[in-house]
Amino acid sequence: MRLTNVRMRLISMLGTIVITLGLFGCGQNESQNQSPKEKAITPQVSVQLWSVKDEVKRDFEGTLTILADMGFDGVEFAGDFGKYSDDPQALKGFLDGLGLKVSGAHIPFEKLNEQHFFDTVAFYKALGCESLIVPYDARAFDPQQIEAVVADLNRLSEKLAPEGMKIGYHNHEQEFNDFQQSTYWDYLAQNTNENVILQQDVGWTTYAGKDPVEYVKRYPGRTFTTHYKVKLPDDVQDKLPLIGQDTIDWPSLIEANISVGGTHWLVVEQEEYPNDLKPLEAVKISKQGLMEFLEAR
């Protein structure tokens, strides 16, 4: 009698284990069978405030309110903070009220030297900003000085990591000039650590005759934030420098950003204003063009 009870308990326990393992296996298979699109997180959409720099200078709060009303999730700063330049906490409150996050900031290396490092970090940390991007440095396409840029980026990457922040670099056309059987951009990417953001400016990449999709795929996980901008080649006459009215294969780029690039932010940038459009009007059109591509996925 006692032996029978023991046997029954063992059978019951084994049954429970089998069922549990079966459920666990089903969960694993379900996860493994998910497509990359199902696993990936769709990036949020931001705007580089340089696109409307004059408007920001004239009316900081009014301009950001208009951008928020356009449906942007965030903004990328370019050095102008209106009346909040010495009060990041108040700026954060203002942005929160608009429902805007800070997707990043463009700052020169000088703002992260020994004299300014801690003040700069404290300011952007208060805004909830985790991406500090160097927008331009002539040394980055100088064969005698590119090593110094690589060293600066690697050093700052390590220094910012404990603060929960990352350093990055933003290209122009010149970074795609030939260098050591490749380009300056490739050299920079291959010699900086994987936490250094490669903020590809799609407009300048295409203007340089390169494929932005290829460059996202070439360096997986490195494009935490990407500038979605149009810079038409000089020989293109029948298109406009507006997202969706240009020559860029945006659907393929979006898929590459999401599935390979590790991209969290698509940053609309507008530096040309065709057909007498005002900057805010051009930004709105490009944003609408981008949203159409995102919604069609």
TrEMBL record:
<keyword id="KW-0456">Lyase</keyword>
<dbReference type="InterPro" id="IPR050312">
    <property type="entry name" value="IolE/XylAMocC-like"/>
</dbReference>
<feature type="domain" description="Xylose isomerase-like TIM barrel">
    <location>
        <begin position="66"/>
        <end position="278"/>
    </location>
</feature>
<protein>
    <submittedName>
        <fullName>Inosose dehydratase</fullName>
        <ecNumber>4.2.1.44</ecNumber>
    </submittedName>
</protein>
<dbReference type="GO" id="GO:0050114">
    <property type="term" value="F:myo-inosose-2 dehydratase activity"/>
</dbReference>
<dbReference type="InterPro" id="IPR013022">
    <property type="entry name" value="Xyl_isomerase-like_TIM-brl"/>
</dbReference>
<dbReference type="InterPro" id="IPR036237">
    <property type="entry name" value="Xyl_isomerase-like_sf"/>
</dbReference>
<dbReference type="Pfam" id="PF01261">
    <property type="entry name" value="AP_endonuc_2"/>
</dbReference>
